[in-house]
Amino acid sequence: MLSELSEWFWQERRWFPEGLGWADLEDRDGRVYAKARDLWVALPIALIFLIIRQIFERMVATPLASLLGVEDTVRLKVPHNPTLESYYCNITKNPTQSSVASLCKKTGYSERQVQRWFRRRRNQDRPSLLKKFREASWRFTFYLLAFIAVICTNCYIDFKINDLYPPLQTLLPSQYWYYMIELGFYGSLLFSVASDVKRKDFKEQIVHHVATILLISFSWCVNYIRCGTLIMLVHDSSDYLLESAKMFNYAGWRNACNYIFIVFAAVFIVTRLVIFPFWIIYCTWVYPVTIYKPFFGYYFFNGLLMTLQCLHIFWAILIIRIAIRFLTNNVKKRNNAARHLFL
């Protein structure tokens, strides 16, 4: 049963254009190609990243936070009440007025005491600035090192529009490790999502991580290596700026945070809303149909890219709103300063 399912899943007509197949990815004449079995390497790498992260946050991020003045917030614990705790954990963290009245009868508390208990309980669950800082510093370190590494090793060099498909791509050692490390890192983010800070775009982050892992894995299996490398490079080019802005924000360095965020917004818009759709997606969506008939792998790959692009648009709207708010407030401050200067 499993063998039949595997044979059906890996059918050549599903993943390759007509005339190409798995035999074209066999190593020969000094040319090396990606192998699906190599993806297992990413699992131990993900576990290693989880261990390194714990060491990094304790040995590097925490002293750095102390140096920048970020302190761990001590939150008062609410008095233990089994009825309210059960309601908080199993039903909702924000009870309605009717639910508060019902809880008053069960606990003997007044409405004000119940509302205060839930407010303090929610506050108790809020992540501290130190936790946010350590998480941001870990991501900043990885994204920055990954971006520098891919630029220095030139694993994206000699990209040509007709190099998108398997027969023309030979695998470089730098590309191999770039893929495995990126896949391992995003795998570690997925493993740690339950303990990480849950932000407003938590669901979108989950979709992004899953789509990224599928995209990396699929592009590796069918040897779309150079295209996949460019996609990861485009993403790494702006992510470290966002994480550094978060770090300065948590440290209270508002001006540094704001200016870095403006730079991040500019890089994000250029890379995610211009280069990504009008260059990379063009090379994977428009150009291939001039050579091959569309096939399932074509739709699957581009479907993942469009999922990422939808997330890019969603985040770009949020980023532009924040940038406009910053610029507007900055202009108001300057106008007020000028008004006081001439009074």
UniProtKB/TrEMBL annotation:
Its UniProt pathway annotation is:
Sphingolipid metabolism; Lipid metabolism; sphingolipid metabolism
User: Which residue ranges run through the membrane?
Assistant: 39-56, 140-157, 177-194, 259-287, 299-324
Where does this polypeptide localize?
Endoplasmic reticulum membrane; Nucleus
Superkingdom of the organism of origin? Eukaryota
Q: Membrane topology type, per the record?
A: Multi-pass membrane protein
Q: Which residues form the Homeobox domain?
A: 84-128
Give a yes or no for keyword Transmembrane in this entry: yes
Concerning Gene3D superfamilies, the annotation shows: Homeodomain-like (1.10.10.60)
Instruction: Note the DNA-binding span(s) on this chain.
Output: 86-129
What keywords tag this UniProt record? Answer: DNA-binding, Endoplasmic reticulum, Homeobox, Lipid biosynthesis, Lipid metabolism, Membrane, Nucleus, Transferase, Transmembrane, Transmembrane helix
Identify one Pfam family in the record: TRAM_LAG1_CLN8
Q: Where is the TLC domain?
A: 131-328
The terms describing its cellular component in GO are: endoplasmic reticulum membrane; nucleus
Keyword Nucleotidyltransferase found: no
The record's SUPFAM superfamilies line, in alphabetical order, gives: Homeodomain-like
Any GO MF annotation of the entry:
sphingosine N-acyltransferase activity
PROSITE patterns per the UniProt record, alphabetical: HOMEOBOX_2 (PS50071), TLC (PS50922)
Q: Primary place of residence?
A: endoplasmic reticulum
The protein's name in its UniProt record: Ceramide synthase 2b
Species assigned in the record: Neolamprologus brichardi (Fairy cichlid)
**Lineage of producing organism:** Eukaryota, Metazoa, Chordata, Craniata, Vertebrata
